[in-house]
Amino acid sequence: MPRTGTRFTRWVVGVLCVVAVLALLAAGAGLWSVRRAFPQTEGELALPALTGEATVYRDGRGVPHVYAATAEDLFRAQGFVHAQDRFWQMHFNRMTTAGRLAELFGPDQVGTDVYLRTMGWRRVAAQEYDLLEPATRAYLDAYAEGVNAYLGQRGGGELGLEFTVLGVLSPDHEVEPWTAVDSLAWLKAMAWDLRGNMAEEIERAGLVADGLTREQVEELYPAYPEEEHAPIVPGGQVRDGAFTLDPEPEPEADPGDGGDTALPPAGAAPALAEVGADLAAVPPLLGPQSSGLGSNSWVVSGEHTASGLPLLANDPHLGAQMPSVWHQTGLHCTEVTDACPFDVTGFGFAGLPGVVIGHNADIAWGFTNLGPDVADLYLERIEGDAAVVDGEREPLETREEVVRVAGGTDVAFTVRSTRHGPLLSDAASALDLREIGEAPPVDAEGRPAEEAADAPEGGYGVALSWTALEPGTTADAIFAMNAATDLASFREAARSFAVPAQNLVYADTEGTIAYQAPGRIPVRGAGDGRWPAPGWDSDHDWTGYLDFEELPAATNPQSGFIVTANQAAVGADYPHLLTADWDYGYRSERIRTLLADAVERGGLTVADMGEIQLDNENSGARAIVPYLLDAPAEGTAAKGRRLLADWDFQQDTDSAAAAFYNAVWHHLLDLTFDELGSGYPMDGGSRGWLVVSRLLADPDSPWWQGTVADGRDAVLAEAMERAAEELTQTLGDDPSAWRWGDLHTLTAGHPSLGSSGIAPLEWAFNGSTVEAGGGTSVVNATGWDTQEGYEVTAVPSMRMTVDLADFDRSRWIDLTGPSGHAFHPHHQNQTPLWAAGKTIPMPFTRPAVEEAAEDVLTLR
Asked: Minimal CA–CA distance to 370: which of 195, 614, 174?
């Protein structure tokens, strides 16, 4: 199943080549096609949906601050501004979450649509709307009115250059009005990209199916090294610096104890492998994924800062895309009241009202992914139209779906579900049993004219249990956080935050710092969620969810700071199972070390926080380099090895040692874990660091036995030799002139058109290439895929540091810029600053906003 926008059918490619050349290279028409989509950002515009007036101030980089007298008008104006800047991104995202990409891009996207329809993201979002608070529904509806007001003023290519391309690709496509459900569906996309360990669950089962023993697989997925890398909260909860454990915890399955049922039956392995491969091709909405994906956040108490009040820093690590996943925004009620409680600045998502990460006049907050295990794959025994559970047949639930296909025949299929969730294996079977584009026809109402090809009547199926497939109230939490005024109201807001479960760091102007983990986290009857569960045994069903009061939290710890970087949230004493698949804590421990040193010096400032965000140390290399220095090497490999002798482990762009080390690391993984093949390669980030560091202490480990090199020192020597050969070919024969930045480059790709294979389109829609320091599982987390090359795939998608003593001293930076329009001055105006590690002012008070403003737009 193809990734979004990576391949087009031949007829599309032919047409687009002609259109691209004519539209983009013809001087007059090309300029007109581009500029007609640029929004008006000064003067006055009619926005009939408003009940009053709204003012939009934009600074010199195009970042908008919106002012309005009512909350509804505030979100109407935000919807209008989002549509001005990013409507293609909004439209593409809603078509993805609805499983309607084939309507835009033709038959190649049917596979993606079938899987997303099978999971039913939009169906669940529609159910959520009725669960939300009346105020939340009003804000979502107001936002939609603002978007639709913009759509009422423009159409076709006036909405964006992408719509000019779409007019050729799918000329009959009509842009529908925006709805509240379109916004809610985006939360499913967030949850999907941050869903936890489902990929690892599939990989472990696949490795066993490929012939590894369970013991070998467990060696590749070691337990979290708690003694070396501290959890966020040592055990249960921390209140005012004192540790307490939850009283009389209910017994649960021990982490790591999956039992014999964890090993999938041989007959189920093919279905599981096929589902895993297809799910990997479902497009990530938060940008391309890679190993080591995570985020950093920390908060420092005022006792350690120059101002005497807290500092909060956050930089979420997401896939690199153009435009950025984030949109910087200020939302300000002209007078803050109970009816209009918003005075907030921060980062949000185009398509979703409110601010997701940021601060208001009283508090600041940041997110990192908690990463609990909230998705389980269940192997089901299917007999005809039923699943077998505890020896009894349970009828399957069914619903019919139709995928509309531009340039092809519409595809009808049946979604079947067990008690555990939708059967993903049915989607794979439906796609395998027909030629895409030659599916059974449908009638005028979209019903199948004849039954679609059935999935196999018997055997094993794969069902998905995932917390995001149950309606939740996360939208309530976003608005409540935006309006919170103290820790109590912030924690009450977090109570509604169902998916994706996050680590929340908090600070306020009274000097309090805190941590809270929210989220809907399942309690399992048996097993630990690390392996596919036997659906035929109800003992493995979920029995409920953890109470909010039982989730880890901390307030004013004695250390004076809190660090979250996707490490274990809790220690081994915590009485509940959150997950057994954490990031292994190298980033968090490095941040803790840097903060401890800074705290000892005292007087921390915003600039100090920014320096920590840019730390490029490869902490995993510290355990590996000594063995490389002792391994044999000759010629250029020996010269490269000498670079490591006095290396400070910083992966700056001009570092020759970093270039050599990362090339060695790339080849070392391939040589050491050649048993894994290309299907389930070893992780190149923190898990790989820990596994290899432990293997190095055991030179006789079977993992060092390979077909090319045999034995630890031989493998290390061969990895250095291959790295030297590779870098000589790409960077020249002088190791001292090698540069990490020449290998480690970032080109933010357009999610739908940026990898089309059509050079003019890629040139128009992708970002410019920049060098990047850092690397996978580094604090400056510019991740790369060891199977693909050294190019950056995941990034600190934004950086923010908030000063609770003076919000106008806060700083921020986005990966790209506010505008999603190709060739607009604000399209990627922050990328060079981001690459250089710089930030820009983050004005908050109205005098500061007005002073920074270069454009003022009045909406009436």
From this structure: 195
Angle made by CA atoms 261, 267, 271, in degrees to the nearest 5: 100
CA distance 797 to 782: 9
How far, in Å, CA of 3 to CA of 860, rounded? 42
Q: What is the DSSP letter of 55?
A: E
Q: What pLDDT does 236 receive?
A: 55
Report DSSP state, residue 755. Answer: T
229/167 Cα distance (integer angstroms): 53
In a domain, 678, yes or no: yes
Domain assignment present for residue 674? The answer is yes
Task: Report whether 604 contacts 598 (CB < 8 A).
Answer: yes
Encode pLDDT of 357-374 as tens digits: 999 999 999 999 999 999
Residue 555 located in a structural domain:
no
Q: What is the three-class DSSP state of 512?
A: coil
Q: Any binding-site annotation on 373? A: yes
Decide if 141 contacts 75 (C-beta within 8 A).
no
Annotated binding-site residue? 201:
yes
Q: Are 331 and 355 in contact (CB under 8 A)?
A: yes
The distance of Cα 667 from the centroid of its chain, to the nearest Å, equals: 27
Instruction: Report the alpha-carbon distance of residue 215 to residue 218 in Å, rounded.
Output: 5
Q: Are 301 and 556 in contact (CB under 8 A)?
A: yes
| Gyration radius (Cα) of the chain, Å | 26
Q: How far apart are CA 529 and CA 531, in angstroms?
A: 6
CA angle 229, 233, 235 (to 5 degrees): 100
What's the number of CA atoms in the CB half-sphere (13 Å) around residue 606? 19
- When divided into structural domains, the chain yields a total of 1
The pLDDT score that the predictor gives to residue 610 is 98
Spatial neighbors of 768 by CB under 8 A, at least 6 apart, are 747, 828, 831
pLDDT at 395: 98
Query: In residues, how long is the chain?
Result: 860
Structural domain range at position 722: 621-738
Residue numbers annotated as active site: 295
Query: Which residues does the chain have with pLDDT short of 50?
Result: 1-12, 14-16, 18, 20-22, 24-27, 239, 241-261, 433-457
Residue 88: phi, psi to the nearest 5? -60, -45
663 within domain boundaries: yes
Task: List Cβ neighbours of 409 (8 Å cut-off, separation of 6 or more).
Answer: 437, 438, 439, 441
Read off φ and ψ for residue 653, nearest 5 degrees. -65, -30
608-640 pLDDT, tens per residue? Answer: 999 999 999 999 999 999 999 999 999 999 999
Residue 734: CATH number of its domain: 1.10.1400.10
Q: Which residues contact 498 (CB under 8 A, 6 or more apart)?
A: 467, 472, 473, 474, 477, 518, 519, 520
Selection from 350, 346, 283, 354 nearest residue 316 by Cα = 346
Q: CA nearest 225: which of 590, 619, 582?
A: 582
Cβ atoms of 439 and 455 within 8 Å: the answer is no
| Cα–Cα distance, 47 to 307 (Å, whole number) | 43
Residues 483 and 501: their CA atoms lie apart, in Å, by: 20
Q: How far apart are CA 650 and CA 666, in angstroms?
A: 17
Name the phi and psi angles at 105, rounded to 5. -115, 5
Q: How far apart are CA 69 and CA 859, in angstroms?
A: 12
Q: Which residues make beta-bridge pairs with 425?
A: none
Backbone angles phi, psi at 595, to 5 degrees: -65, -40
